[in-house]
Structures are given as structure tokens and as C-alpha cells.
Design brief:
Layout (H helix, E strand, L loop, with lengths): L1 H12 L7 E4 L5 E5 L7 E5 L3 E5 L5 E6 L13 E6 L3 H4 L1 E7 L6 E7 L10 E6 L13 E3 L7 E4 L22 E7 L5 E2 L15 E4 L6 E4 L6 E5 L6 E6 L16 E2 L2 E2 L16 E3 L8 E6 L12 E5 L5 E5 L2 E5 L8 E6 L5 E5 L4 E5 L7 H20 L1
Antiparallel strand pairs: 1-27, 2-3, 3-4, 4-5, 6-7, 7-8, 8-9, 10-11, 11-12, 12-13, 12-14, 15-16, 16-17, 17-20, 18-19, 21-22, 22-23, 23-24, 25-26, 26-27
The structure holds calcium ion (2 copies).
């Protein structure tokens, strides 16, 4: 099965008939898939407020059900993000991002999926009020970078409406249209890392980067910790932004919205481009039915030479997919017409998946299995012996 998927994707990359392996179906409006590093299970986020778990044999169960708390009946609201605590293997703790049914605010909470009473394990980390009457641009992705363990990054949209009517993404006293960075408290709440860019100066201390419209799906490279931010455009350009861990993960970056949409001045407003602008590494227009970028992952599974080390992303509306190598995008022959790609997903072993609003989950590229512990030990002993000999010589 795995080798078949790899072979099919290699064909797709060269323009042959596209194929991918359907490994799950029947989910209700799934919008994200993830897994703790090294965990063989897949955690699938359903927009209505449920997290399902699919095991390696295909069995599906419910890990969390907070539908009573989640507003998902209109616009782009719902349960939108999931991240795993570094201590997940022992504490079962996850972080979620959703729109609250009562307040319509963004809420980031943590739960322990292994608690005897999961509901009672809820801890509110942070909330962000949303503008009244605007149902779109809630973003909702959350994640931890291997280059910055312990700090949770939270993507917020501009809160909705055309052309960010209150100019919130450029407003440093609003947490909307931002990438936030906080240290979650074990008992809820958060502290602000002292090296956040607006600590001690004007601007909200939680803000890490700003000028974002609707950064719905983003990722940290599991190997390097680099940040990939995909900001959904309005009516002209879709964009991908990149900030390496080596250069500081884009601390204080202004990604340009609303004065800019992708690499052009926003046609809908006359604001001058900000002087401190960070341009996207790639943006694209509305040809071929493209209209909503879905950020993906740098594939680190090692099982597909075409994808290895490249950023894979796509478009919700057209279903098209690309790899990005540096600033050069190469189309992949996508199998996803009518699939409504809502997210890519990364397995605990680095395998790459695609998630469709229709309830289907596809494996795009499997991961090469990790060497068995006995083999690693043998390799380690061999390397140790080599080093010892070199030192002696
Ligand atoms: Ca401040
Ligand atoms: Ca931008």
C-alpha cells in the first residue's frame, strides 16, 4: 500500500494520471489532521467540534467532543486548530482553537485526552474577541516549532469583512490579523515570552507577527522548525510566506495586509505599502479556478524523492497542488477535483496526507519506516568504533 502511494505520487509529479491512496472516509467536514511525533495514530479535526482518532488499522474513535461549545453553523467558524503538548505521551494534553458558541470569540483551550473526565480537564489559555456580525477570516491554526519548544503560535484572521474594514491587521493594539506567541500555563492562561517583539514597547505583547488576513493553514517544518504561513487572499492574490528558524522565525514581521495582497498593492484600498513589509516567497492569482490557498508541509518522510524537502501546498477552490522549492512552484497533477481540500496533514512518522471537506482523507506520501532500535544500536556501535579509531590515528 505504501509503496503504491509513493509510486503514484511520483507519476503525478511528472504530469501522469494523478492518484493518491484513500485511507479514511466518512468524517464530517474535517478541516485538519495531525499527530504527535512518533505516534502511529491520526487525529482528525471535524469543524463541528469533534476530534476523531484513526488507528493504524483504520479503526476510528472519538477523542474529544466539544460540539456544545463550538459555533460552526455559519461562515468560517468552527473547531479550527489542534496542537500537541510536548509531553503528550505522558499527559495526553492537546490545544484546540475554536469559535465559542456563546461569545463568538476565538478560544484557545487545552484538554487532556487521557483524563478520566476529559471535559473537566479543560483549561482556557487565551481568548480573542471577534468583531460583531462578521463570520469569516477566523484563521485558527495553532502550532509549536521544534526550534522554539514550549511556545504556542496562534494564527488569527482579521476578523472578517472585505478589505479589513477596521484595519485591524495593521493595528498593534488588536490581536486580530496576527501570529501570536505565548507560553501556555499548565493550569491555563499564559505568559508572554520576554523576547516577543512588542514587549516593553507600544503594541500588544502577545503579537509575534502581523499584517495577516486569514492565515488558515500553516506549519512548522518538523526538521528545521521553519515557519510556513499561507495567507488567504481577497480577490486577487494567494500567498505563501516563509520565515526560517535560523533567521528568527519572522519576529516582528509585517506581512502586509491590508495595504498589500500577495505581492501587489491591494486593489481594494489605497493604503500605501508599509515601509517594513515582508513580501511572500510565492504568490499566485486567480487563473485555473484558484481562489483560496491551503498551506501545507515540508515533506520529511524520506519516501518520495520528488517531494522530499519541499513544501507541498494547494488550493481549496481549484483543488490544485504544488511543491515549492525556494521560490519556484511546480504544479503537481492533483487528483482532487471536487474534493475541497481543507488541509494537509502530517503523520507522526512524517507521512503526508490531504484532508477534504467531503470527509475523505488521502495519503499523499508515506514515510520510510524508522530503523528498528536494534539496527540503530548496531549503527551507533559501528559509528562509535569508527570515531574511536579516528581519534587514535
Ligand atoms: Ca507592548
Ligand atoms: Ca502578505
Amino acid at each position: 500500500m505504501k509503496s503504491l502511494a509513493i509510486a503514484c505520487l511520483a507519476l503525478a509529479a511528472t504530469g501522469a494520471a494523478p492518484a493518491a491512496t484513500l485511507i479514511g472516509s466518512g468524517f464530517t467536514a474535517p478541516v485538519f489532521l495531525g499527530a504527535p511525533v512518533g505516534d502511529s495514530r491520526l487525529f482528525i479535526v471535524e469543524r463541528g467540534g469533534v476530534i476523531k482518532v484513526q488507528d493504524s488499522l483504520g479503526g476510528v474513535s472519538t477523542a474529544l467532543d466539544i460540539t456544545a461549545k463550538v459555533e460552526s453553523s455559519s461562515g468560517e467558524r468552527g473547531l479550527l486548530g489542534l496542537a500537541f503538548d510536548a509531553g503528550f505521551a505522558t499527559n495526553g494534553r492537546v490545544y484546540v482553537n475554536y469559535i465559542d458558541k456563546t461569545t463568538l470569540s476565538t478560544v484557545v483551550e487545552s484538554y487532556s485526552l487521557t483524563a478520566s473526565d476529559i471535559g473537566a480537564s479543560a483549561r482556557t489559555i487565551l481568548t480573542v474577541a471577534q468583531p460583531a456580525g462578521r463570520s469569516n477570516h477566523k484563521a485558527g491554526w495553532i502550532g509549536f516549532s521544534a526550534a522554539d519548544p514550549g511556545n504556542l503560535y496562534i494564527a488569527t484572521g482579521d476578523g472578517g469583512g472585505g478589505n479589513d474594514p477596521d484595519n485591524l491587521a495593521q493595528n498593534l493594539t488588536s490581536n486580530l490579523g496576527k501570529l501570536l506567541r505565548v507560553t501556555p500555563g499548565a493550569d491555563g492562561g499564559y505568559t508572554v515570552p520576554t523576547d516577543n517583539p512588542f514587549v516593553g514597547v507600544a503594541g500588544n505583547d502577545e503579537i509575534w507577527a502581523y499584517g495577516l488576513r486569514n492565515p488558515f493553514r500553516n506549519s512548522f517544518d518538523r526538521t528545521t522548525g521553519d515557519l510556513w504561513l499561507a495567507d488567504v487572499g481577497q480577490s486577487a492574490r494567494e500567498e505563501v510566506n516563509f520565515a526560517s528558524a535560523a533567521s528568527g522565525l519572522g519576529r516582528g514581521a509585517n506581512y502586509g495586509w491590508r495595504p498589500r495582497e500577495g505581492s501587489i498593492d491591494n486593489p481594494g484600498v489605497g493604503d500605501p505599502a508599509p515601509p517594513n513589509l515582508t513580501e511572500p516567497v510565492f504568490d499566485y492569482g486567480r487563473a485555473n479556478g484558484d481562489a483560496t490557498v491551503i498551506g501545507g508541509y515540508v515533506y520529511r518522510g524520506g519516501g518520495d524523492a520528488t517531494l522530499d524537502g519541499k513544501y507541498v501546498f494547494g488550493d481549496f477552490v481549484s483543488g490544485r497542488m504544488w511543491t515549492l522549492d525556494g521560490t519556484t512552484a511546480t504544479p503537481l497533477a492533483s487528483p482532487f477535483s471536487g474534493f475541497q481540500l481543507t488541509s494537509f496533514g502530517e503523520g507522526g512518522d512524517g507521512s503526508l496526507y490531504a484532508v477534504g471537506l467531503n470527509g475523505d482523507i488521502y495519503l499523499l506520501a508515506a514515510a520510510v519506516p524508522e530503523p528498528a532500535p536494534a539496527l540503530l544500536l548496531a549503527l551507533g556501535l559501528a559509528a562509535g568504533g569508527l570515531l574511536t579509531r579516528r581519534r587514535r590515528s
